[in-house]
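Dig into what follows:
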Amino acid sequence: MKYDYDVIVIGSGPAGFSCAMQSSKFDKKVLVIEANEDSFGGTWINSGTIPSKALRETARIIQRFQNQFKDLAKEKAYQHHQMADLLMYKNQILESKNTKVKTDFDKNEIDTVRGHGKLNSEHEVEVETTDGTKKTYSAEYILVATGSKPVKPKGFDLDHDKVFDYTSILTLSHIPRRLVVVGSGVRALEYATTFSNLGSRVSILNEKDSFLPFLDNEISEQLQQILETQKIEVFSNAESIEINPNALRNTTEVKYNLRNDNEGGRDRVIETEHVLYLGGKVPNTDSLGLREIGVKLDEEGYVVVNNDNQSSVPNIYAGGDVKGFPAMASSAFSEGRIASCRMFGIEALDVPPEIPQAIYSIPEIASIGLTEKEAKAEGLDVTVGRAYYKNITQGDISNQQDGLLKLVFETETLKLVGIHILGERASDLIHLGQAVMSLGGDIRYFINHVLNYPTYSEAYRIAAFNGINRVYKAGVKYKKILKSKD
């Protein structure tokens, strides 16, 4: 062999893991380089996706249990549960996932080495271990999957005692009575609703003009009602945020202004126990030697790739957060797999441009395709069908009354162009609609096929009938609607 390996993967997150596994199935010799001395999986397993969802799942279970019994509904979770117990569940999951990743690597004869990888050339990677030892490995192909790291805040510091980031918040020793979340994105909502359901009083300081503006308008309206019910305050247009201790009152003070508040930009103060900062992320590319060997990076340091996740250097690929949008674990798995197929000339279908997105808040939010507003902006004649969780039998059984499933479809052909869900199990429910959309189906699928009952999937049938009724009222003959349009 001309090289030590067929492919070297830098990073063992979802993109790196899937590329390594797929390459091993092609009988290729694979080396995975992981900077973490103790675990595999990067942010995916150790500090991001899985641990935050594990804590969120615990909060969701507590919330469901308490809502089933009136005498518990008004009590706070921290009256009955210790943070250490909740985090023990998270730690068990992390240990299990790390063991599974290591087992998969061993079982598929994938070599691993711990240390920091740096590219010396387009085919060579130098690995430096924590004791300073250096060794160089070569490969025909290289996948860069080093992930990202949080941006440091401006105007205040993270001390990981009173002011946390998404990593250190998972080391809390207790459930805070009061929490301020500084953030504008998906994670801000996820952590806010998680801690709210654990009994914390939560405020969100959103530095942007609006909160999660990409959501469908009706989903956003439903979400606002739920946030009000959970007593989560959202202050948009927040700026000039300062955080200081108040020793006299034994609290942390968060001072901020609101842009365009018609009050002359007066100072506002929230007293809190802890602050969670969830700013943006930057790619881990600054010490990899990529520019030096000709790999093109954008202004923010993300690796520029084509549709095959191939960089400007033909044998070097990138996947996951390091290449930017969509920067989700779900899509990263596909990116690593596709990169492996392209490297070794194996035919594989491209990932469709419409990919599902999920927000793991309580309740969940999921969507795929166009919002109603986007569809109309594109000049499409669309109708919508709605199903509210309060009208679904499973919603009654599970005492989950908050939620909406919305179908957006072309009025003439009934073809699905968008699905938007807020409610219990939305992240799972979205995949039924995704399958119908990807096969070019229309809303009659949900009417003509039997769906298990009672389930949350019943919402698709109700929404489809609701949409059909709207078309009927618009003047289209009902019999013609139910007929095949082939």
Observations:
- The chain has a mean pLDDT of 91.
- The chain has three domains: 5-150+282-343, 163-279, 363-479.
- The longest strand covers residues 134-144.
- DSSP finds 14 helices and 22 strands in the chain.
